[in-house]
Amino acid sequence: MEEIEFIKSIVEDAKQEAVQIETNAKLFSARQIEDAKKELDAQKTRTVESVKASIELQKSRAEMAVKVESGKTIINQKQDALNEVFESAKAEISGESAAATKSLISALVKKFAKSGDTILVSKKDEKVLTEEFIKGLSVKGLKRAVSPKVKSGITISGATYDTDLTLETLLKEIADDKMLEVAKILF
């Protein structure tokens, strides 16, 4: 009988231990599930914040791209207007009378030409800038030649240099110098 009591006691202890193990397992499992839920919630929050930040960044980039494109369009429009101003000036200067053309060329030759240089003139200006006109300028020993490379104005060609005084080059230099002033007036 004692043996039966002893076995009953062992069985009872085993049952209590099994209940304790089961209770501990349930508590441990509940904690694990709670911790997993908290981590999942935290990860969900981080993901949502990351997505929101990414959306804001994309939105900001899209707005910046629109601003840049808009700025490019405005700059292109202003550049077109400035180009029109200088093309108009070029057309006006090109349409000047023979006397005005001679006066401009005379001033350029006096400033830049040296004795022995060749004055290259355009086919368009050859009737105005004649051999006699070039020889009559204050610089002695000048020669004249017609050049297809010169569209309007002149190029002074020396032994070791060429000075480009074509209308296009002169207007480009003026445009570069005066672009800011013209832009302020126009815009």
Short description:
This protein has helices at 2-94, 98-112, 131-135, 167-186, and strands at 118-121, 143-146, 153-157, 162-166.
Structural overview:
By secondary structure, the chain is α+β, with helices and mostly antiparallel strands. The protein folds into two domains: 1-94; 97-186, ATP synthase, E subunit, C-terminal (hypothetical protein PF0899 fold, 2-Layer Sandwich), CATH 3.30.2320.30. Helix content is 71%, strand content 10%. The protein has helices at 2-94, 98-112, 131-135, 167-186, and strands at 118-121, 143-146, 153-157, 162-166. Strands 2-1-3-4 form a four-stranded mixed beta sheet. β1 (118-121), α3 (131-135) and β2 form a beta-alpha-beta unit. α1 crosses α4 (167-186). The model has no long low-confidence stretch (mean pLDDT 83).
